[in-house]
Amino acid sequence: MEQKRSKVMVIPCDSYDEEKVYNCIKAGLGQLGGFDAIVKAEEKILVKPNLLTASVPDKAIATHPSVLRAVLRLLNERGCVDVKIGDSPGHGSCEGALKALGLKEDDIFGAKFTPMSDNVHVDFADGITCREFDFCKEIVESDAIINVCKMKTHALERITGAVKNVYGFVCGYRKAAGHVKFPNDTVFARMLADIHRCTHPRLHIMDGIVAMEGNGPGSGTPTPMNVILISEDPVALDTVYCYLIDLDPEAVPTNSQGCRMGVGTDKEEEIDIILCNVDQAKTITRKELFEKLGNGSFDVGREKPKKTFLMKYSGFMTKLARRPVIDEDECVKCGVCVDHCPVPGKAVDFKNGKQRPPVYDYKKCIRCYCCQEMCPRHAISAKKGFLSFKKKKKASIS
Fold this sequence. Notes:
The chain is an alpha/beta fold.
C-alpha cells in the first residue's frame, strides 16, 4: 500500500491587505477541501495564534491580525458558531495581546476571546517523553484546534513554527516548570511532540508574510518572506519553512523528534509541496520552491548539530550550548528576565543590586531562553557557549 503523503500548501502573499490574505488562505484551504473537510459546524473550535506578549503587528512577534481575521471569517462562512480565539502568553494576558494587535471582540466574525488562564491537569498514558500536562482548560474543552503560528527564529529550537506553537497550550505560569523538566533542545522538542500526540490539532496555518529572523522569537528583525503555509502535518509544514530559508530540517529538533515520534514527516520524499494562488495550484520541487520564494540569507542558527557520546549527558551538553547575554547599555533593570527565570534559586538575578543589570550564574542556567524571549527591551541575545568542539586539521603531506 502506498504511504499517504503530507501536503503543504505554499501561497505567495506579499501584503497584509485583509481581502488579499483572506483569498490566499481560502485558496490554500481549498486544496484540502476547505474547512468543510476539517471541522464540523457544531464543534467547539479554538483558534490558537502565537501571542508571545502584547505587541503591535509591525514587530512580527505575533500572528498578524489579518491572518487571524481571515481564518475566523472562513470558519464563520463554514457555519461554525462556537469559535474561540486565545493563547497563553508568556507575559501579560491573552486579551491584552489580542487588543494590542488591534482585534476587537465585536469585529471577529462571531468568535470570542478566551483567557487561557485556568489550568487543567491531563494524564497522557501514551506519552513517550511526557505523560502529564497542565493545559489551559480551553484545550480540553475544544473539539478542534486550529494552530495559526508565526514564522520566526528561536534561540533554543532554531525556529518556532507549527510544532513549537503548541507550547501555548500549557498555562503561562506552568511553562517555566516545563523548561526545568526538559532542559535542552532535544528533550524539549520531544515534549512538544507529545503535546501534539495528546491534542491532535486539526490544521496548521503559518503567517510568513513578514517573518522574524535573528534574535527571535521576541527580539528579532522583521523580514518579508511573502508566504502563507497551510498543512494538516505540523512537521511537514515546518520542514517546508526550512526549505524556504535553506536550513537543514534535520538540524531543527522539533522536526527530527516530531518525525521520530510519529507527529509528522520531515522526509522530502514524503512531502508534496503545492504552490497555490486563487486561480491554480501545482506541485513543485524543493529546488523550485527555493528558487521562487526562498531566502538563503535568512538569519537563523545554521551550525551543525554535534553528535557525540556526550549527547546523553544533557546537563553537560546544556553548558556547551549558546548562552543568554545582557546588553548593559540596553537593559533598563525592569526585572522581567529575573521574574521569568524558571530555575529554582534563579540563574539570573540582581546580585549587584537593582541599580545594576541582572547577572547570570551560568552553572545554574539551563539555556531555556525564557529571559531572552520575555525581555521587553530586546536587551538579551544568545551568544556562543564557553566550550566548543573544533575539528583537528589534517597534517599536510610534504
